[in-house]
Amino acid sequence: MNEFDIPIFKKTYDLYKSFYGFRETVSKQDRYTLWQRCENLILDILENILWASQLPKSEKIPILEKTSLRLNFLRVFIRLSKEIKMLDNKKYILLQESVDEIGRMLGGWLRSIRQR
User: Fold this and answer.
1) Which domains are assigned to the chain?
2) Arithmetic mean of pLDDT, 78-84
3) Does the pTM of the predicted model rise above 0.85?
4) Alpha carbon distance, N-terminus to C-terminus of the chain
5) Which of 39, 68, 71, 92 has a beta carbon 3.0–4.6 Å from 82's, enabling a disulfide?
């Protein structure tokens, strides 16, 4: 199976593309602080998903748990971005829905590994 066919990878990939597309709407002052931090987290999550997809089952759990923690950081930072008006409600909802779906997929992946 090609790692690019993994649904959680595709969803995270699309999240990054959406996030990147909003970059121009963010002020320069915000773009190089909280925005950059969020962008780096999304890239870390994408990287970790690819990494975990290549590992044997016994080695996936620590990577996926770390990815889950990074996803929670991202969730908080995206909420903060909305509260400081860096993101409007429409963009916030779109990003938050993607993050929530990725979280559900990640949780399912972890559960399936732990049950074996």
Assistant:
1) 3-114 (1.20.1440.60)
2) 97
3) yes
4) 20
5) 92
Long-range contacts of residues 86-93, Cβ cutoff 8 Å, at least 24 apart: 86/26, 86/27, 86/30, 86/34, 86/35, 87/22, 87/26, 91/22, 91/25
Looking up tokens 């649904």 gives 7
Read off the pLDDT of each residue in 38-46 and give the average, rounded to a whole number.
98
Q: How many beta carbons lie within 10 A of that of residue 112, not counting itself?
A: 11
Query: 103: number of CA atoms within 13 Å, CB side?
Result: 13
| Count of helices and strands (H, E) across the chain | 5, 0
Judge contact between 42 and 84, C-beta under 8 A: no
